[in-house]
Write a structure and sequence with these properties.
about 375 residues, alpha+beta, Aminopeptidase, 2 domains, about 25% strand, globular
Length: about 375
């Protein structure tokens, strides 16, 4: 009886003491289910993100390859073959296709899988601010072609002197086309709105210079964005190619420099306009910097494959491009496995014109460059 009273005093039957523990187990089970659900949600999210990234790559690839045609280039090089001592005639037992050319004993065929992009450095410091279509779009102080060859897994950069004499479309201040003139290539970007129109006209001018070369995309970046690009890969180390003595930047020839922030801008942009061929020497500095930057960028890309997409967002205010995010995603996965080949440049002569320096490309050297970079050697006789 005493034990019963004790039990009654506690208000609980002895057999019911386990219920709170059972309730804790239920709570633990609920928490476990919540955790499992969360883990599944994360897994699904990651899977969807991976699938989404793959879809972006596929869409990007299809869009890139459908953006330009090789017809004009192939026709032009075929027409010019004879004038440079080549031919378009098939030899015995050769696998010959329309558009193939023979030059210096080698049989060449256009590489339909190559992707080519035009990169411009515009002489503006701030963010992109479109202007009225006309003559105030800003000059392109740096002009480069990037060719991505999936057969060789190689990226080739071609530096084009800003003063290259080329066929440029001339517009009035009100945006009316007056015709074309042979003048410095860098001026083409100025005849436009400083944004899409300027870039599209620059693409046309560079394509004409390279005999109708298909260009699959463009990217014009205001020079003020250089510090952002430079610092995103931890800076760039190189040796100064020449003595530089400016108010904001000084360096001795051969001096080792680790460029950070605005120093990268000064190294790539500054030149003494009173010194003959200063633009040519600056182009050499730009080529040198690109080589070192590419090494740093590829190392950073292997650590973080999303780096190009992140840079795309960072640079968006300083940049005009028709390369979309999905195309960047595709290119990022491709570039991670590429090596950087030789940084090429146009061969020719710089002369002093009436007002400014003028660079005249060597036509046969340009023809050979196009064959070596954008065509493939498929045989010799």
């Amino acid at each position: 009886m005493a034990s019963r009273k004790a039990a009654g005093a506690n208000g609980k039957a002895p057999g019911k003491k386990g219920r709170p523990a059972a309730g804790g187990a239920a709570a633990g089970g609920k928490a476990g289910r919540v955790l499992l659900t969360a883990l599944l949600a994360v897994a699904v999210f990651i899977s969807l993100a991976a699938v989404g990234f793959l879809v972006l790559q596929i869409v990007g690839k299809n869009r890139l390859y459908g953006s330009a045609s090789s017809g004009e280039l192939v026709a032009s090089l075929s027409e010019m073959a004879v004038s440079f001592g080549g031919s378009t005639e098939q030899g015995e037992e050769e696998d010959w296709q329309a558009g193939d050319v023979r030059y210096e004993g080698a049989h060449y065929r256009y590489n339909e899988d190559i992707l080519t992009f035009l990169f411009l450095g515009i002489d503006r410091m701030g963010e992109v601010e479109p202007v009225e279509d006309g003559i105030d779009g800003g000059q392109s102080d740096a002009i480069f072609l990037l060719a991505l060859d999936p057969h060789k897994k190689e990226a080739t950069v071609i530096g084009i002197p800003r003063d290259t004499m080329a066929e440029v479309e001339i517009y009035t201040r009100s945006g009316t086309l007056m015709g074309t003139d042979t003048t410095q290539l860098c001026l083409q970007h100025g005849y436009g709105d400083g944004a899409q129109l300027s870039c599209e006209r620059s693409v046309k001018a560079v394509s004409r210079l390279f005999y109708g070369l298909p260009i699959h995309g463009y990217c014009a970046v205001n020079m003020g964005a250089i510090p952002l690009l430079n610092d995103a890969v931890g800076g760039v180390t190189l040796r100064a190619l020449e003595k530089m003595d400016f108010k904001d930047f000084r360096a001795e020839e051969g001096e080792e420099l680790h460029l950070e922030g605005m120093d990268a801008y000064y190294y790539l942009h500054n030149r003494d306009i009173t010194s003959f061929n200063s633009a040519g020497r600056r182009l050499q500095r730009q080529k040198q910097y690109l080589t070192e930057y590419a090494g740093a960028a590829l190392a950073a890309l292997k650590e973080d494959i999303t780096l190009p997409v992140a840079l795309y967002g960072t640079l968006s205010r300083y940049m005009v491009t028709d390369i979309t995010v999905d195309e960047v995603g595709y290119l990022a996965t491709q570039a991670a496995g590429y090596s950087l080949g030789e940084i090429r440049s146009l061969k020719g002569a710089t002369v002093m014109g009436e007002k400014h320096e003028e660079f005249y490309p060597d036509e046969e050297a340009l023809y050979r460059l196009v064959l070596e970079v954008f065509y493939e050697e498929v045989g010799r006789q």
